[in-house]
Design a protein that fits this description.
Strand order of the largest sheet: 3-2-1-4-19-18-17
Shape: elongated
CATH topology of the largest domain: FAD/NAD(P)-binding domain
Number of domains: 2
CATH class of the largest domain: Alpha Beta
Structural class: alpha/beta
CATH superfamily of the largest domain: FAD/NAD(P)-binding domain
Oligomer: single chain
Helix content: 25-40%
Strand content: 25-35%
Order of helices and strands: EHEHHEHEEEHEHEHEEEEEEEEEEEHH
Number of helices: 9
Length: 320
């Protein structure tokens, strides 16, 4: 049994993995989350047809049973983390990416222009978490912009929410799509239409509502810094008539969290001064981090490893 106290910010996969291993080793652990439930993106971001609540509970229940104390409804900022660093021996920041990048094109504020994470959150609050009776109700055609796993989830949910046709518009080809092959196959199995080499440049509106999206037809050139072939505009355009445009072009950090400036960040991502495996020490000595807020949006498996590596680091330091 250790007398060390650990504060974990974020009850998603990284935070839960760290908490379980630390509690098992005899540490006192408090877990803070701004939601009113544990699970993070596993709960509110991934639909139940992909990741069921039972699977999440298998990660949450051991933490509760081992004596982990959850504090929900805590919308914390950097000033709070710094206070925690004075009260706890270690603070672990594992709160993930909570924003979606805006399309940044004309018309992306029209009625019917949606944010993929908020759209999935509303669906999961009703379907998976059973917290509301307020599932999104769509009609007509929905165009999802992007081709990552979040885009595939949003497209599949759109079909379940009443969209008669759902289209993925992506500026690169099938081969460059960042989603897994299985995710794309499942989306197509649900009737989602893939429209590659189409880059949305304007959301079209009528009477203040989305009525279509104008796309530039692209072609691929040499690979860019991501290693994927770079899309280049051809100067040719097509219009997709639709009733909704759902932005799923990447998750980003909430910049408003950093209200002091003592933690070193890069565009909202926490920067490490040292690391032990996937445990990253921040610019504040006893504040560590891991998961998406350091590495960008990755898989649940990567987040779990980050949390477990932080627990290993704490235990190893204590045994020195």
């Amino acid at each position: 049994m250790s007398n060390k106290r650990i504060a974990i910010v974020g009850a998603g996969p990284a935070g839960l993995a760290a908490a379980k291993d630390l509690l098992t080793a005899g540490y006192s652990v408090d877990i803070f989350d701004k939601e009113n439930f544990a699970g993070g993106v596993m709960a509110f971001g991934i639909p139940s047809f992909r990741f069921k609540m039972d699977a999440i509970q298998k990660q949450v229940d051991p933490v509760k049973n081992l004596g982990g104390v959850f504090h929900f409804g805590c919308d914390l900022k950097e000033s709070d983390f710094l206070k925690m660093a004075e009260e706890y021996d270690y603070v672990y920041l594992a709160f993930g990416l909570t924003k979606v990048r805006h399309l940044g094109i004309p018309g992306d504020d029209l009625e019917g222009s949606l944010n993929a994470l908020e759209f999935l959150r509303q669906y999961n609050f009703d379907d998976k978490l059973e917290l509301t009776n307020d599932r999104p109700h769509l009609h007509g055609t929905a165009v999802v912009v992007g081709a990552g796993n979040v885009a595939m989830d949003a497209a599949r949910v759109a079909t379940r929410c009443g969209a008669e046709k759902t289209i993925i518009a992506y500026r690169r080809s099938r081969e460059e799509a960042p989603c897994t092959k299985a995710e794309m196959d499942q989306a197509e199995g649900d009737g989602v239409i893939m429209q590659f080499l189409n880059n949305p440049v304007e959301v079209l509106g009528k009477d203040g509502k989305v009525c279509g999206v104008k796309c530039e037809v692209m072609e691929l050139s040499e690979p860019d810094e991501s290693g994927r072939k770079k899309p280049v505009g051809t100067g040719k355009f097509v219009t997709i008539e639709c009733d909704y445009v759902i932005s799923a072009i990447g998750q980003i950090p909430d910049m408003d969290v950093y209200n002091v400036g003592k933690l070193t960040t890069d565009h909202g991502y926490l920067k490490a001064v040292a690391n032990t495996g996937e445990a990253f020490q921040t610019s504040v000595d006893n504040i560590y981090t891991g998961g998406d807020i350091v590495k960008g949006a990755k898989t649940i498996g990567v987040a779990l490893k980050c949390g477990k590596d932080f627990a290993k680091l704490v235990i190893a330091n204590d045994n020195k």
